[in-house]
Amino acid sequence: MRIGDLSRRTGVSVASIKYYLREGLLPPGELTSPNQARYGEEHVRRLRLIRALVDVGGLSIAGTRDVLAAVDADDVALHHVLGATQKALLGTPVVADDDEAARAAKLLDDLVERRGWHVTETNPGRPAAIEILATSERLGTEVLTRLLDTYAEALEPLATAEVGAVVARGERSDVVESAVLGTVLGAGLFSALRTMAHESASSRLDAGPAAGPEEG
Amino acid sequence: MRIGDLSRRTGVSVASIKYYLREGLLPPGELTSPNQARYGEEHVRRLRLIRALVDVGGLSIAGTRDVLAAVDADDVALHHVLGATQKALLGTPVVADDDEAARAAKLLDDLVERRGWHVTETNPGRPAAIEILATSERLGTEVLTRLLDTYAEALEPLATAEVGAVVARGERSDVVESAVLGTVLGAGLFSALRTMAHESASSRLDAGPAAGPEEG
DNA sequence: ATGAGTGGAGAGTAGAACTATCCGTCCAGG
DNA sequence: CCTGGACGGATAGTTCTACTCTCCACTCAT
């Protein structure tokens, strides 16, 4: 398969494919002569994976490269790949060094202990969660802190099911790839379903006292 | 309060504040003379809200403007504000017109019916969910479709709690503002906690048969 | 042999989110 | 009352990202 076929198979322009090659997202094809290369099914698959991460997950090209590098490095533990994915998904927020951040950190660590979660120091979710809780406090919204336990409760069966579904897959490369996909697509899907569930829940307590005029 | 004070109070540069004014994210201050304006606490609050939506939620400036316009329009129903928020968060994906999309749509509609959810045609979550499910199928990962019910089950108490927490707040403007904040910050917080729960869950079935060498 | 396609490299582009400069005005401190 | 730093408003410039275009020396199917 040559670059034109690859383009036709995936709907990605030749120019973009070349760009992904330059940026190291896509491994080079096998050279059959100094300026001819052949691509295979793994390139089709990788290209679709790239588009999924970029389009659905909203990852940057640089973030995608990092995630794919972790996917390809077969000496990296699964949860490190997930860490890289999460980092690309959510960024690495700088945790402010103020009262709100300190209180948020305590709130979170208490939760983790109360729930008996096993979370290491390097988990990228921790600073992200702390920053969000601190931001929420700075804005004077106590809503989030009240929901923390509800979130944790909802997450326990969910995370178990997700990890279980992914691990039940056989070869490491498959496991890692569906772990990344599951993280990114799962987050998007969950978020989309959340909107639907919100509408459903709010329609249930419809004509609420403070919801303003409802139309439609 | 003048623009310099506003800048100092919020940590946002004067130039950026002017930019937000130009872009219509921040209402103009009260003019005390043709070229002097005064700003109040509502500007501080609004500026912090903008930064939260942009930094934590990753909303674009244009998307933030749309959300804030919905927040300010007091004749708009709560779920419409949430719809605008979700649209800004997740984008408005174009649903492809192929087999996978059709199957995904059926899958989703079945779920909604099975669960007895009340979701209108215009809910932006629906096309987003369909596109993600279709993408997942195109990549040959059946993991997501198997998790659909788990997601829905986790979401029901969660969405009820979120909507309940937000609606219990009194004035409409407060309700709407915390609804937006809850949607955006809640999504981020949930996602961060999810990473932590994943690590915890995967460490529970540690040394799994296909997880590759674990270090650390 | 020939013309469409190719690999590789560099330059160019469009949009987003600021950032800098300018100008006339204002106003607080001396 | 004078004056220098801040201000409001407008326009232009910058930086970054994710492409997209253009070249050029090949190569390969027809």
Describe what this molecule looks like in 3D.
The structure is a homodimer of 216-residue chains. A two-stranded antiparallel sheet of chain A has the order 1-2. Mean pLDDT of chain A is 90; it is low at 207-216. Chain A folds into two domains: 3-56, Multidrug-efflux Transporter Regulator, Chain: A, Domain 2 (Orthogonal Bundle); 88-202, no CATH class. With 216 residues, the first copy, chain A, is mainly α. In chain A, a hairpin with a 2-residue loop joins strand 1 (30-33) and strand 2 (36-38). The first copy, chain A, is built from nine helices and two strands; from the N terminus they run H-H-E-E-H-H-H-H-H-H-H. Chain A has helices at residues 3-10, 14-22, 41-56, 61-72, 78-90, 99-115, 125-138, 143-167, 172-204, and strands at residues 30-33, 36-38. Chains A and B meet through helix 3, helix 5, helix 7, helix 8 and helix 9 of A and helix 3, helix 5, helix 7, helix 8 and helix 9 of B. The structure holds a DNA duplex (30 and 30 nucleotides).
Q: Report strand order across the widest sheet of chain A.
A: 1-2
* Assembly annotation: homodimer
Query: Which geometry of chain A do the CA atoms define?
Result: elongated
Name the average pLDDT of chain A: 90
Total domain modules of chain A: 2
User: What's the β-strand tally of chain A?
Assistant: 2
* Helix residue percentage of chain A: 55-70%
Largest interface: A-B, 102 and 102 residues
Strand content of chain A: under 5%
Give the radius of gyration of chain A: 21 Å
Low-confidence parts of chain A: 207-216
Distance between the termini of chain A: 53 Å
Q: Number of helical runs of chain A?
A: 9
Coarse structural class of chain A: mainly alpha
